[in-house]
Amino acid sequence: MKMKQTIPVLAMTAIMAQSTVAFGAETFTDLTGYNWAKPAIENMAAQGILSGVGNQKYAPAANVTVTEFASMAMRAYGGKDVAVTLSKEQGNLEEIEAVNGNYWGNTTICAAQKFGLTDRFGLDKARWSEPATRAEMATIVMTIAEQMGEEAFEIKDGIENNIGDYSEVSSYANDMRYILQAYSNGILCGTDDAGSYAPSAYAKRAEAAAIMQRLVDPSKRLEVEIKPAPVLPVPDEDNVMEDGTVYPKEGDIGPNGKPITRDPVTGVLGFGNGQKGGIYIGVKYPTNGATIQVGSTAADSYDNMGGDYREKNGYVFWEPEWTKITTVAENKLNREHPANSTPEGTQADIYGNIVSKGSPDAFYEVKGGWDFKVWQPIR
Asked: How confident is the model at residue 9, as a pLDDT?
């Protein structure tokens, strides 16, 4: 992993991991019961990325504050004196000190201006002294990582399938992209068996140390394997209805002459992998001899059937399938290419990938005025 300004820190990681004592790290006496975090705490302390609270205490059960976490993230990339260096570049430390008095985090606040974090948290020490929520932690750590490092933290397609409380996460418009980045790369992940991110929850200083270790050492990152989208209500093998109607299933030959597959991100049968749906066209109902065509209304609730069978730009799907496809594409566009920061007229395909203007694959376009823009379907 190559990162800007990180060579002095990362070059010594392996050596420090062998003996934190040799580098004069603090020996904390309050880590009993935190065996899972102790190696990370001691290793990160040895590298100067974090420090204790005095009297050989680390306070692992205390909530990590905004200042503390931002300071850790900066040190992970620039070393223990990075805040001092960056605050000098900003040039207004004295103004901040005049407001906050003798606050230990003034240099961190001043340095944070470089990353735009003061647009979110302001300059007042009261806000920076508050516990950081997990949503805020993702924004802080990924913002600093993107600007100080060279590693590309990509968002994995389908990561929303792993997040048990994705509906709540998606309501955090300012933080969602950073949460998905952190989750996709195993830096900040789920808090329970369902993979819930818990964006409004606070994190402890013990967890903060583990996060920092994952940031600087990819081998410590959590493994993230994308879960398939849930498929309801009928499994593929139950494709024969009581009236004898036989619906297509995974593995059957589709309209493109290839086996039908299911898109792992949307859960839609006959989508992705070059498929354009239309797999139900021609299915005959034995009771009346009618066949399914574009515009037909679903007679059953097999797989994701429902509503009308609709065509858009050469793709044919049932209304619930279109909802799944559209939701995934729009979520991807909103997190990777927010409309308000994307030029008006920019277009994207059905998967949420940017395409050239006027492309026959264009499905979405940025529309609106100078102060408010949105991604809208073209058709």
From this structure: 43
